[in-house]
Design goal:
This protein folds into 2 domains: 181 residues, Leucine Aminopeptidase, subunit E, domain 1; 298 residues, Zn peptidases (Aminopeptidase, 3-Layer(aba) Sandwich), CATH 3.40.630.10. The chain is of the alpha/beta class. The strands form 4 sheets. The protein has an 8-stranded mixed sheet, sandwiched between helices. A 6-stranded mixed sheet has the order 1-6-5-2-4-3. A 3-stranded mixed sheet has the order 11-12-16. Helix 8 links the parallel strand 9 and strand 10. Helices cover 33% and strands 19% of the residues. The longest helix is centred in the middle third of the chain and has 26 residues. Bound molecules: ligand BES, manganese (II) ion (MN) and zinc ion. The site of zinc ion has 5 residues, from strand 9.
Length: 508
């Protein structure tokens, strides 16, 4: 996608034919006349049947009396102010942008003042202007994503938009428009990277390809990068991690990106660790065939960490951050781990492999130990498509949040409420470790089916020191969805990037 996202003044939108925006996105409440700042708009016959219901659109071919302004106005319904929520705004903006896409336009703008003015008139005062601007603007951009890398036909599906303008009519809004555009640019390109990796097939997006993607981000933005390959992973003693890639032709990569702004060299970093299983067949405990192709997205956590790294760098994050991608592939093979095998983790604790399909926790546990030993982190946040059980518990929109630090949990809950990456707390009470006991090793990698998401969190907790601030996010539900909507194409969702970005930028 070659898309330019920029803030621009209304008057500048129409000075020349090749800068002219072809459509302006506006908003309206149900049964309420849209704002008066577009002379003549209200009299348009195109609005005759427009009610302003959520996700309703009106396409108005428009000519202002003085011949200025866009040729098209796309008016998006917001419904009733009493039922307003950020998801309503997001869907409205995305639905409008889908229309732009369908019309194959090259340049479109969202009129920031009009959006904020409409929301204000509806009495929406529980969100800051910054949040409203951000969510509206970014959701419109989200509607532009599509994964076309391997399509050789139907090229007309491709998005033609080359310019997405955040338009301000009045100068006082200029700063907000610019701030919003910067944010939307950073997050949109991060999300694109995350989704492209996640939608990419496992024969192409291998652990080596993940390393390459990380190296590209590192070189572009000035991260220090370090990669542990098969040999190093074995040599440092990550026996659990190595067991996972033993059956794969592609090997494993623990990729580490360090973001150290000047002056933060001696501060404890925030570590974000993503599960990066480029394919999870289940291994010898092989998965059923139905839906197995979706396991190309079992690296969604690592992809979200990398996308977040790109975004935080373009936003000039002031904090020291380490991104870790624990990449491997889980395959059945003569060299693959078997049920009953016992491996020794980097922490020294031994693990009996009772189910080779519980592989995510094996790459994560050694990476967690490595993170603690190497960085003495201020906090470790791991993110993983870890358990089908979490998807069963919370469905496909919400992640499971397991956190031993009340303040961090509160921060993440509030952030998710505003950015849409919602995660819900589940307990990490030690009783459930009972489910993870082995009669021959320190623990088993698979427990009872009941409480599977909590069991997995308890497994990880064995590798976290008592005084280490830690959060585990299980994104098996929301990371990948074969049902799409206005905001997202079917497939990868990029879930977690924004939640982690907010933590990286703002958690003190
Ligand atoms: N990657 C899967 C979890 C998963 C399932 C993610 C569905 C997304 C959608 C994970 O490696 C796995 O297989 N977990 C097992 C654990 C069990 C064997 C203890 C599971 O959830 O069944
Ligand atoms: Mn698995
Ligand atoms: Zn997995």
């Amino acid at each position: 996608m070659n898309l330019e996202i920029k803030a621009i003044a209304w008057d500048e939108c129409f000075v020349s034919d090749d800068s002219k925006i072809e459509a302006a996105i506006l908003f309206a409440w149900e049964n309420t006349a849209p704002c008066e700042c577009f002379p003549g708009l209200l009299e348009s016959p195109a609005l005759k049947d427009f009610k302003g219901k959520p996700n309703e659109l009106a396409l108005v071919y428009y000519q202002a009396p003085d011949k200025s302004g866009p040729e098209r106005i796309i008016l998006a319904g917001l419904g009733n102010p009493a039922e307003f929520s950020l998801p309503v705004l997001r869907m409205a903006a995305a639905t409008a942008m889908r229309k732009v896409r369908e019309l194959k336009l090259n340049r479109a703008g969202l009129v920031l003042d009009q959006m904020l003015c409409t929301l204000q008139k509806g009495g929406i005062d529980r969100f800051s202007e910054e949040v409203l601007a951000r969510e509206g603007a970014i959701s419109a951009a989200a509607a532009l994503y599509a994964y076309n890398r391997f399509r050789t036909k139907n090229k007309e599906r491709e998005c033609r938009l080359t310019e997405y303008a955040i338009v301000y009519k009045k100068t006082p809004r200029r700063e907000l428009a610019e701030k919003t555009a910067t944010f939307v640019r950073a997050v949109t390109s991060g999300l694109q990277l995350t989704k492209d990796l996640c939608n990419g097939p496992a024969n192409i997006i291998t652990p080596a390809a993940m390393e390459e993607a990380a190296a590209t981000v590192a070189a572009r933005y000035g991260f220090k990068i370090q990669v542990l390959r098969e040999r190093e992973i074995r040599e440092v003693g990550m026996g659990a991690y190595a067991a996972v890639f033993n059956g794969s032709a592609f090997g494993g990569r623990l990729v580490i990106l360090e973001w150290t702004p000047e002056g933060t060299e001696h501060t404890a970093p925030l570590v974000f660790l993503g599960k990066g299983l480029t394919f999870d067949s289940g291994g010898i405990s092989i998965k059923p065939a139905a839906g197995m192709h979706e396991m190309k997205s079992d690296m969604a956590g690592a992809a979200a960490v990398l996308g977040m790294c790109e975004a935080l760098a373009s936003l000039n994050c002031p904090n020291r951050v380490v991104g870790m991608l624990a990449c491997a592939e889980n395959m059945p093979d003569g060299a693959a781990m078997r049920p009953g095998d016992i491996v020794t983790s980097l922490s020294g604790q031994t693990i009996e492999i009772q189910n080779t399909d519980a592989e995510g926790r094996l790459v994560l546990c050694d990476s967690l130990t490595y993170a603690e030993q190497t960085y003495k982190p201020k906090a470790i946040i791991d993110i993983a498509t870890l358990t089908g059980a979490c998807r069963v518990a919370l469905g496909s929109e919400i992640a499971g949040m397991f956190c031993t630090d009340e303040e961090l949990q509160k921060f993440a809950l509030t952030a998710g409420e505003l950015n849409g990456d919602r995660a819900w707390p589940l307990p990490v009470w030690d009783e459930y470790f009972e489910n993870m006991k082995s009669i021959v090793a320190d623990m088993s990698n698979a427990g009872s089916r009941e409480g599977g998401a909590i069991n997995a969190a308890l497994f990880l907790k064995q590798f976290i020191s008592k005084d280490q601030t830690w959060m585990h996010l299980d994104i098996a539900g929301p990371a990948y969805n074969e049902k799409g909507n206005a905001l997202r194409e079917p497939g990868a969702t990029g879930f977690g990037l924004r939640l982690m970005l907010d933590i990286a930028m703002g958690w003190k």
